[in-house]
Design brief:
Elements lengths: L1 H42 L8 E6 L4 E6 H12 L6 H20 L8 E2 L11 H7 L5 H13 L4 E5 L2 E2 L4 E2 L10 H4 L22 E7 H8 L16 E6 L5 E6 L2 E4 H8 L6 E6 L2 E7 L7 E2 H9 L4 H8 L4 E4 L4
Parallel strand pairs: 1-3, 6-13
Antiparallel strand pairs: 1-2, 4-5, 4-14, 7-12, 8-9, 9-10, 11-12
Helix pairs in contact: 2-3, 2-5, 3-5, 3-9, 3-10
């Protein structure tokens, strides 16, 4: 009887417990190997030239030397919401890396490569400040997501004819992007053209309005044009004269002055140059579409495309025409 029991136990051991044990070890080995390979893949990329940058902190006027991808985690977390799709965040990481290297090659600051102010270079926020702005229950997962998007695209940049592009980006295009010549003048760039993107109207950045009384409008315009006069009874004294190919305001008339759309946007505090003028009794309403200058990649447009299943490379090639995605060490 004992022998039968022993044989039965050996049978169970050989045919059930041992295979299960080996399978578990194999699975664990595969997971460990997979994780190790992923880590190695991330770490094995070596920057040829731009692995470290000099970052100017404008409040203290201090210059910090920091690894470029560490810097980009701070940039991406400042520039794009962490709850956006991962492919949109990866596109933002590649765009921000490209913009950084372009700035290094076309220096604006004497002793630094780039600064931490969005109106001059691109936004930056410290990890501590970024975490503090998120709810406690999502802090670590948000930061991990940002890091993954930066490091999974490590070294990748956007080039046109073999050179890093001036990778402009903005919040929301209002459905159609703008060319730089209509914003800053100059000759523009062949890779920055008017492109359409569906789905941006589902974001809060898509629509806004500014309502001003007649006296408030005059007051704002007088900050630059002291002699401004507007006959509010005359419809021709408050009129959009010309639009750009993207549908934005190119020239607008305020009484005895004609302003560019970009100038009107700045003076009146509008989110974009894509606006309409509506009279509401004694008030003037500016109904605005989009948020930002409209040039290059729309961040909400990128998220909308990612929700459709587009990859970060698809997104980039949608907004920048005729470009390639390559690696920094191949420049």
């Amino acid at each position: 009887m004992k022998k039968v029991f022993i044989y039965f136990f050996i049978f169970l051991l050989i045919f059930f417990f041992l295979p299960a044990l080996l399978t578990k070890k194999n699975v664990e080995a595969k997971v460990t190997t997979s994780n190790t390979e992923a880590e190695e893949k991330t770490e094995q990329y070596n920057y040829k030239t731009y692995g470290t940058i000099k970052l100017l902190h404008t409040k203290t006027n201090e210059i910090e030397e920091v690894p470029i991808d560490t810097y980009l985690c701070n940039v991406v977390s400042a520039e794009m919401p962490a709850d956006f799709e991962k492919e949109a965040l990866k596109a933002q990481a590649i765009v921000a890396r490209t913009y950084t290297i372009y700035k290094i090659q076309n220096k604006k600051h004497e002793n630094a490569d780039i600064c931490d102010v969005s109106t001059c270079c691109q936004a930056w926020i410290s990890k501590e400040d970024r975490l503090a702005k998120w709810d406690e229950n999502i802090r670590e997962s948000n930061w991990k997501k940002i890091e993954e998007c930066v490091y999974e695209t490590k070294g990748k940049i956007i080039t046109y004819e073999g050179k890093p592009i001036n990778a402009f980006f903005h919040s929301n295009s209002g459905g159609k992007t703008e060319i730089p010549v209509n914003v800053w003048g100059g000759t523009g760039y062949p890779y920055l053209q008017v492109v359409e993107t569906a789905g941006e109207d589902g974001y809060s950045q898509y629509q806004s309005e500014v309502i001003l009384s007649q006296s408030e409008l005059i007051e704002k315009l007088k900050t630059k044009y002291e002699d401004i006069t507007i006959d509010f009874i005359n419809n021709d004294d408050l009129k959009i004269l010309e639009y750009t190919d993207s549908g934005r305001v190119k020239t607008v008339k305020f009484g005895n002055h004609e302003l560019s759309g970009t100038e009107a946007r700045t003076l009146l505090g509008l989110r974009s140059t894509n606006f309409e003028i509506v009279r509401e009794g004694e008030n003037i309403k500016f109904w605005v579409k989009g948020y930002g200058h409209g040039v290059g990649m729309s961040q909400t447009g990128a998220d909308s495309l990612a929700k459709e299943g587009k990859t970060c490379e698809d997104i980039i090639k949608h907004f920048y025409i005729g470009v390639e995605i390559t690696e920094e060490n191949k420049l």
